[in-house]
Amino acid sequence: MAQTEWPLWEVFIRSKQGLEHKHCGSLHAADAKQAVQMARDVYTRRQEGVSIWVVPSSAITASDPDDKAELFDPAADKIYRHPTFYELPDEVKHM
Amino acid sequence: MSGERGSAEHIEYVLRLADNALVLGQRLAEWCGHGPVLEEDIALTNIALDLIGQARLLLDHAGRLEGKGRGEDELAFLREVPDFRNATLAELPNSGVASAGAAGGDYGVTIVRNLLFGAYQVELWQALAKSADAELAAIAAKSLKEARYHLRHAADWTIRLADGTEESRARIERALATLWPYTHELFATDRVEQAVARHGIGVESASLRAGWLAALAPIAAEAMLALPPDTGFCSTGKLGRHSEHLGFLLAEMQSLHRQHPGATW
Q: Is A29 on the interface with B (CB under 8 A)?
C-alpha cells in the first residue's frame, strides 16, 4: 500500500517560564521543517511557547503497559523515598 | 491617540490597507473547518485572524481620522460594495476565477494568492513602519512580523506543491497564471498614494514592486516556476470598482451584524 498519510511527530514546547521542553501533543507533517511550522500554528497560538522541538514518533521507545506491575508497583510502598519525614530547619527557605 | 482629523487621501489610504486585510481575512476564514488537513486548517485560520486583527486596528484608525463617529464595526459591516477599497486580488474566490462559484476552494489558488499578497504586505509594512502617521507606523511594525510568517507559510507550500504531483504542480501553475494579472493593481500608483507619499504618511506602491519581485524570485526559482509576463490588465478594486465576487462575500460577512445591530458576545 502506498503511504498516503504523513508521518506522525511528537511536539515539545518550552514555555516562557519553563526551562525544559514539555510534551504537548502530536501532529502529522511531511517532514521536520513542516512539522515545526505546523507545531507553531497548532500548539503555540495562545502564547504557549518560545521554543519548539519535534521528534518523529517512530523514534520514541516506550515502556510496555503490560510491564506496569513490575516496573512501577514496587515503588508504591517505599514511602521513605519521599523527603516528607525530614524536619526542615527554619533557616531553609523556599522549599 | 489624538483626535486629529486626516485628509480625504489619508483616510482613503488607510481604508485601502484595512479593506485588503479584512477581505482577504474573510476569504481565508472560509477555509475554517474545511482545510485539507487539521494542521493546515488551523494555520490558515491563524493567518485569517492575523489579517482580521490588522483590519480592526486600521479600520479603527480610519474611523478616527474620519471623525464622524464610525468605528471598526460600522466600517466593516455597514458599508456597501462600492465603498470598499480593497484590491480585487483579495476578493477573488478561493476556487479561482475560472471555476468561480464551484463548491469549496482550490488550495493552489489560496496558497499562491497568499504568496503574492504576503510578499506585497512584507514590502508595504516595512515601508510604512517609517510612516509620519505614528499610529500607522505602529500598526505596520506589528503587522510586519505577521506578514513575514504568512509569506513563509505560502512560500513553503508553493515549493512543496510545485514540486509535488503532476496535479499539484498544474494547479500552482494555473493559479499563478490566473492571479498574476491582479497583482498589477497592488503597484498601480494614483493620486491618493501620491498625496500620502508627499506627506510621508504612505508610499507610492509602484516603488514597492522591485522589492516584491526580488522576494518572489528565489521562491519561484526553488519551485521551478516562471513568473508570468506582465499584461496591461489592471483591476480597480482600490478605486471601489469591484468584481462580482465581493458582494457575495460582504453579504455573508455582514449579515449577522445587519440582523442584530450592535450584537456582541
A: yes
Q: Which residues of B touch A45 (CB under 8 A)?
A: 42, 46
Q: Are B228 and B177 in contact (CB under 8 A)?
A: yes
Query: Residue A1 has what pLDDT?
Result: 44
- B165 CB within 8 Å of a chain A CB: no
Strand residue runs (E) in A1-95: 8-14, 22-28, 51-56
- Check if the beta carbon of residue B142 is closer than 8 Å to that of residue B131: no
Q: State what percent of residues in chain B have pLDDT above 90.
A: 91
Taking CB atoms and an 8 Å cutoff, what residues of chain A touch B152?
A: 37
State mean pLDDT over B180-186: 98
User: What is the pTM assigned to this prediction?
Assistant: 0.88
What pLDDT, on the 0 to 100 scale, is given for residue A2?
A: 56
Do B133 and B97 touch, CB atoms closer than 8 A?
no
Indicate if the pLDDT at residue B101 is higher than 60. no
Asked if residues B158 and B219 have their Cβ atoms less than 8 Å apart, the reply is yes
Chain A residue with Cα closest to B37? A28
CA distance A79 to chain B (A): 44
Q: What is the separation of C-alpha B116 from the centre of its chain, rounded to a whole number of angstroms? A: 9
Q: How far apart are CA B20 and CA B88, in angstroms?
A: 9
Gap from A65 CA to chain B (nearest CA, Å): 29
Residue B231: alpha-carbon gap to chain centroid: 21
Mean pLDDT calculated for residue range B189-207: 97
Give tens-digit pLDDT for B229-255. 999 999 999 999 999 999 999 999 999
Mean pLDDT over each residue of chain A, to the nearest integer: 88
DSSP single-letter state for residue A65: G
Would you give the end-to-end CA distance of chain A in angstroms?
57
User: CB of A32 within 8 Å of any CB in chain B?
Assistant: no
Taking CA B48 as the corner, what is the angle to CA B190 and CA B96, rounded to the nearest 5 degrees?
70
**Interchain CB contact of A6 with B (< 8 Å):** yes
CB contact under 8 A, A37 and B46: no
